[in-house]
Prior knowledge:
Bound molecules: 5'-O-(acetylsulfamoyl)adenosine
Largest sheet: 8 strands, mixed
CATH superfamily of the largest domain: ANL, N-terminal domain
Amino acid sequence: MAIKKKSEKISASTDAITSSLKETRVFAPPREFAKNAHIKSPAQYQKLWEQSVKKPEVFWGKQAKENLEWIKPFKKVLQWKAPFAKWFTGGKLNASANCIDRHVTAGLGNKAALIWEGEPGDSRTLTYQDLLRETSKCANALKALGVTPGDRVAIYMPLIPETVIAMLACARVGAMHCVVFGGFSSEALADRINDCGASVVITADGGYRKGAVVALKQNVDVAIERCPSVSHVLVVRRTGTLVTMQPARDHWWGEFLGRMSSHCPPYEADSEHPLFLLYTSGSTGKPKGILHTTGGYLLGAALSAKIVFDLKPSDTFWCTADAGWVTGHSYLAYGPLANGATIVMYEGAPNHPDWGRLWSIVEKHRVSILYTAPTAIRACLRAGDSWPAKHDLSSLRLLGSVGEPINPEAWMWYHEVIGGGRCPIVDTWWQTETGSIMISPLPGAIPQVPGSATKPFFGVFPDIVDKNGKPVPAGSGGFLVIRKPWPSMLRTIWGDDERYKQQYWSQVPGVYFTGDGARRDKKGNIWIMGRIDDVLNVSGHRLSTMEVESALVSHKLVAEAAVVGRPDELKGEGIVAFVTLQVGFSASDALRDELKKHVAVQIGALARPDDIRFADALPKTRSGKIMRRLLRDVAAGRNSNQDTSTLEDLSVVAALRADSED
Length: 662
Ligand code: 7RM
């Protein structure tokens, strides 16, 4: 393996985003892996990809027939009245039947569908047969509570099997689920319930997180005081925490489902019948309810799970995402279950009781595919190699990353320390809005380059353009857009078609605007450069914050970094970096200077931070995305009126304000 790294000076540019990351290490798929993979070579990938974008309707029509079970076949693959798409019209199917019943019918009833581990160490395994019984009972319970097709059901749960069961039960009766992350406040929950008008809330008495109990039911009680649409609450007993049950409104899951039949015929949903709503925080204003529908979404999730993770019947697939995030929809639940795989699910924190937890789960359940976020990888890297070293990780054959750009240092650690140098890494770029993976190496076919998401998935036609919509040359940064509709694309923002049009289809007319910056290198590999709102403008040069962060993290003492701009009279924007250090090292003025110099050497003097602030932790959402808009306020010394409902730990911000260089 050739290890070579260099950086180049920044060149002046006004429209494009200047790129300085020059990662040149390449990891070809291991021969054995490629031999057994669904897609085995670059040529095979290239041929299929070209077919898929030249004749998308032929490609997707074939895939939909092969990968999904239809109650009634579809008549037309795509109806496209930009920007509104309808996929597989005339077809009828049920998502829960595709994820469960068809595998039971195929004789896999006794196969483990879901292996779950609670934070305290308790565990449960559900076979496909078990999943069918529990999902059917829950579906009947929803019907008994008055839920009908098209209704909305809010799910506010810890990560326990009932969360997936509840999602599948909604799909079974044709109701839309709206999963709200269990770490969100009652305020955030109420806003989302009110936006979608949910009639039922499914929750638990509590959930375990870092050894403590999160009082979920209590939050629900507070939230629905101002949610007139809610008529019933179904409560799973998880922690035994004392809760108040309001007669007629609140029901214990165990008792209520105990009275239900374990048979529930799946609702025959039109392909475009809504499947779920998932809220994402827009950069401003109220959260957006992203709408996904049945046939297209399920095909996107199922096919990408199969091809990108090279899923085989023998795999044990662990996606560490919470169900409250889109990754928990597509790759914890729908994608792998549609493929009849065995999934692993873990309730708690990665460092409970210590930093060996993830690796002990991999060892115990013989996980073969692990899919997690760079933030978790960096946290584990920071905790040190001694934790994974205590465990047998030889069951792993493939690793995945999602949520943020993965910096080359974290990539290399993941590859060597976790993957033992033998596992390909798929760096998967996608969004809540895209529903499924859009850009990623295929593990048996595409050479991986640390930090690059590499190539588009089948049927995905990305481009990188300037603000006038003109493609930028190779090597230049620009806006990432998608030129053609794809089956798992969002259909609209709930209740707001105008905002949907304006936000995603108007910035560059006629194409889908991702909001991310990216560049393509000479080999055609795509590099995601982060959200365009995060781009810095220093003396007329547009710099990607992510690249300055990557340069900081390449210093051996730095664990994690977040870079933002602050108003600067001379330069337009000055650069402020928030830095956490590796365990055992402390901040000093000397280190501050050293880090500034390090960035200047790595990228160029222009990218040298004006201010570096050391911190114990950075403010993040629970899916691990750094909340830079909050840090911009901290950097500028402003009080913040940002929406902090998605922030994991509010105290982090107070601590950052306290540590100022000036
Ligand atoms: C799946 C998910 C979407 C945003 C997206 C990007 C960032 C996600 C990667 C990535 C670089 C990746 N959905 N992002 N994956 N950036 N490389 N592999 O994260 O809706 O929660 O976020 O996340 O900015 O636009 S999301």
